[in-house]
Structure formats: structure tokens, C-alpha cells
């Protein structure tokens, strides 16, 4: 793992080679985009990154600005700046010479789709994992984050957890407090707009949308499947928004089926 310069930031990154002992150059790199606040690259490292790497694809994981071990500037949490961070990171790593596959979970899926819309030249395909797309999700997310921010602001929860010896939980809680109460993240999210049918129709790359059967976000995925030129919707039974952690096997099968295996790769899970 390393801190990689990306524009004016240093982002915490992890790269995994395609199966065979070194970075492969015969196919697009698979870039994973995690969700908000309590999430970081570890959610993919422990689930999908290994199987994708073993299937022969080079993998890039990174903590988005303000998350995990990446730097936490006070501003810049809107979608356009997040896309600029990604573009700068790809340039720093020498991965901007060919399009990449983007795999985004939850809010990370919204960033993946936004990247495909504003920089279609950089995106080979998009895989959405129960991503926020349409409806009132921005208002709902802003309300949820605001309530969490108020709950953390004067609670002293991080100190209490540290006092109980629960160091990891204390660290995550302190990071969430800093992100929600000492950056413009909530305001930046609130200033965004949902995607529209016109946005979906402009997509130039293939899209795979993997959603839980009981997810509140499924209607947006169905609209995407109707409007996008090339979109496959995969609905996994028995789960809601927790597809990544509770339906990992089915999600992994769908992802690997979409990515395929580069020539000569040995697929093992």
C-alpha cells in the first residue's frame, strides 16, 4: 500500500497484479470505488479484489479523499472533484493510456456513472453495486448524514470506545466525525442532482447493475436498464442494500462474467 500523489492530494492506494506475477497490460485495469464515510478500500480488498486479480485483471483500490488513510482536505467532496481525483490518480500511476473498468458500490457507483458521463474516453465499462441513481436519494442521504453528524459532534463516542479498548471502532468513529463535522462533505452531497433518463441515454459504455431484491434503490436501476443503450440488470435474491457483504458470491460471479478473463489467465477463487 502507498500514498500516491493525485492533483493536490495524496491518496492511499493498493494495486494487485493480474494472475501471473506482474501487472498485465493486455486488458483494462479494474478500479474499485467505495461508498461514503465509514467505507474505504478494505471493503473491496476483502471481497472482490482477490478473485478479480486471480482472474487475470490488474486491480486498483484507493481510499477516496477524506476516507481511510487518504488525506482529508476540508472541501472538494462533490462528484466533479471526486472524478478529478480519480483522473489525477490514474495519471500518476500511468493508467490513463487506456480506458478502465469502474466498479462502484453505493455512492461509489454514482461516482463511476458520473465519470462515464463526463469522461467517456476513460471508461471501458461500469459495474454498479446497489448504487444511488434516481429519486430522492440525495435528500435522503443528506438527511441521514446530517443526523449522524449531530450524533457524533458532542457525543465523545470515539473517546468512550477507546477507553473500552475498542481501538478500531474508536478510530473509525473519530474519522467519521472529522469527515462529517469538519469538511464540506454534507453540503457538497446536498448540492448534487440525481441522474436522469437523459443521462442514462448518453452512456457510451456497457453497464452492469447488480442490486438486491429488497433494495430501496432498485427502481432507479430499472430505469437505468430501460434508458441506457447497453445495460444488464442483475437482481440478487434475499438481500437489500448490503449486496457487497451479504451476496458476495453471486455478485462476484456476475462481475467476473462481465469482465471475462484476459488471454492466458488462470481463474481461481
Uncertain segments: 263-269
Distance between the terminal alpha carbons, to the nearest Å? 22 Å
Number of folding domains?
2
Query: DSSP helix count?
Result: 12
CATH homologous superfamily assignment of the largest domain: Alpha/Beta hydrolase fold, catalytic domain
Reported for the largest beta sheet, the result is:
8 strands, mixed
Overall pLDDT confidence: 92
Radius of gyration: 18 Å
With strands numbered from the N-terminus, the spatial order across the biggest sheet is 1-2-4-3-5-6-7-8
Characteristics:
alpha/beta, Rossmann fold, 12 helices, 8 strands
Task: Describe the protein's architecture and organization.
This protein has 269 residues and is an alpha/beta fold. The protein has 2 domains: 2-133 and 196-260, Rossmann fold; 136-193, no CATH class. 42% of the residues lie in helices and 17% in strands. It has helices at 42-45, 49-54, 79-92, 107-118, 137-153, 157-163, 167-181, 185-190, 197-202, 218-227, 243-246, 248-259; strands at residues 2-6, 9-16, 30-33, 59-62, 100-105, 123-129, 207-212, 231-236. The protein has an 8-stranded mixed beta sheet, sandwiched between helices. A hairpin with a 2-residue loop joins strand 1 (2-6) and strand 2 (9-16). Residues 263-269 have low confidence and may be disordered. GO terms for molecular function: hydrolase activity. InterPro entries: AB_hydrolase_1, AB_hydrolase_fold, AB_hydrolase_sf. Residues 30-249 form the AB hydrolase-1 domain.
Amino acid at each position: 500500500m502507498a500514498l500516491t500523489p493525485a492533483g493536490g492530494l495524496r491518496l492511499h492506494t493498493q494495486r494487485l497484479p493480474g494472475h501471473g506475477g506482474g501487472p498485465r497490460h493486455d486488458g483494462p485495469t479494474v478500479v474499485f470505488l467505495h461508498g461514503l464515510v465509514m467505507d474505504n478500500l478494505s471493503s473491496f480488498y476483502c471481497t472482490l479484489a482477490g478473485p478479480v486479480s486471480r482472474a487475470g485483471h490488474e486491480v486498483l483500490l484507493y481510499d477516496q479523499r477524506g476516507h481511510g488513510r487518504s488525506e482529508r482536505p476540508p472541501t472538494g467532496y462533490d462528484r466533479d472533484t471526486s472524478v478529478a481525483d480519480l483522473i489525477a490518480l490514474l495519471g500518476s500511476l500511468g493508467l490513463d493510456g487506456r480506458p478502465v473498468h469502474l466498479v462502484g458500490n453505493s455512492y461509489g457507483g454514482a461516482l463511476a456513472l458520473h465519470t462515464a458521463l463526463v469522461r467517456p474516453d476513460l471508461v471501458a465499462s461500469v459495474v454498479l453495486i446497489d448504487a444511488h441513481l434516481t429519486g430522492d436519494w440525495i435528500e435522503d442521504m443528506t438527511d441521514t448524514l446530517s443526523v449522524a453528524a449531530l450524533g457524533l459532534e458532542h457525543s465523545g463516542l470515539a473517546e468512550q470506545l477507546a477507553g473500552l479498548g475498542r481501538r478500531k471502532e474508536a478510530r473509525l468513529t473519530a474519522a467519521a466525525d472529522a469527515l462529517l463535522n469538519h469538511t464540506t462533505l454534507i453540503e457538497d452531497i446536498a448540492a448534487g442532482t440525481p441522474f436522469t433518463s437523459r443521462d442514462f441515454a448518453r452512456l457510451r459504455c456497457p453497464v452492469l447493475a447488480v442490486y438486491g431484491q429488497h433494495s430501496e434503490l432498485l427502481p432507479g436501476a430499472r430505469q437505468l436498464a430501460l434508458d441506457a443503450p447497453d445495460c444488464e440488470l442483475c437482481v440478487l435474491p434475499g438481500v437489500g442494500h448490503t449486496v457487497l457483504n451479504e451476496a458476495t458470491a453471486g455478485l462476484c460471479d456476475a462481475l467476473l462474467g462481465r469482465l471475462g478473463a484476459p488471454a492466458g489467465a488462470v481463474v481461481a477463487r
